[in-house]
Amino acid sequence: MKQGPGGLYAAPSILWLSVFFVAPLLIIVAYSFLTQGQRGGVEWKPTLDAYKAIANPTFLTVTVNTIVVALGATLVTILIALPCGYHMARSKRQNLLLLLVIIPFWTNFLIRIYAWIAILGNEGFLNDLLRFLGLTDEPLRFLYNRWAVGLVLVYTYLPYAILPLFSTIDKFDFSLLEAARDLGATKLKAITRVLLPNIRGGVFTAFLFTFIPIFGAYAVPLLVGGTESYMLGNLIADELTKSRNWPLAAAISLVITLVTTVGVMLLLRAGGTATLGSGGAGTKEPEEGAALPAQSVASAEGEPA
């Protein structure tokens, strides 16, 4: 049987992944098992010292703080992105709203962070406004804490959650919500029992698109965070530039990569199972399937169709 040119077509992507993903990952794996050099770098002596150092209580504290900040910021981002995506999907001005969501990407990432510093700083816009209104005489500390880090992270990665949610909700058959209301469901129950189960795939995608970059964030906690908002990205950078302990930095990076990969695989599996379990009731179907949505809504409400 004559084989097609599929392998030739796939060669550029395979080469790209090999050079920019597999090779760096192999370097990190190799460095994590080597000995720290006296003046930085590594010595080619195999050891497990880097992985033993990970058991340090300081590392565990930073890990817990990173997980708390990342999960909290991700959940808040999705809670804000859900109504935004829903409104965009129902709006007649989708192109304009999409443009407004994408506009922040046109500005440099660091400029956006420093803009928040100008807003939240002791002499920033927010404190000036509070003093002008007579609500305070001394500047309030809005910066250099965990809340400032969470706020800027939510702002930074909100578009990454809005776009997949909008794409999923836009394909949803909104007649299902009307059918649910006709069957006696309240607005809240129609959303929780009909809309959310059918856009679960978009929710999982939004979670992955926001949690993964937030989990490895470096610039935001460095610029607007304090000692209580120290995250793993900052720890890795300090080990590379200050302590110059490259094996430990590589070991931390490898552990993060493995944990993140396992979490992503579990979420993707759960998301795929949820999508299959939904039976596609929320997607827009041809006219001959018009009886199916009402039946699925009735089943969700526990009533006969």
What do you see in this structure?
By secondary structure, the chain is mainly alpha-helical. The chain has one domain: MetI-like (MetI-like fold). The chain has helices spanning 6-32, 49-53, 57-90, 94-102, 109-120, 125-132, 146-170, 175-182, 187-198, 200-215, 219-224, 232-241, 246-278, 291-301; strands at 35-36, 42-43. A two-stranded antiparallel sheet has the order 1-2. A hairpin with a 5-residue loop joins strand 1 and strand 2 (42-43). The chain is globular.
Helix segment tally: 14
Strand content: under 5%
Domain count: the total is: 1
Note the gap between the termini.
52 Å
CATH topology: MetI-like fold
**What does the average pLDDT come to?**
83
Sheet with most strands: 2 strands, antiparallel
Poorly predicted segments: 275-281, 285-305
Shape: globular
User: How many E strands?
Assistant: 2
The computed structural class is mainly alpha
Which percent bin holds the helix content? Answer: over 70%
**Secondary-structure element series:** HEEHHHHHHHHHHHHH
CATH superfamily: MetI-like
The CATH class name reads Mainly Alpha
CATH architecture: Orthogonal Bundle
Radius of gyration equals 24 Å
Strand order of the largest sheet: 1-2
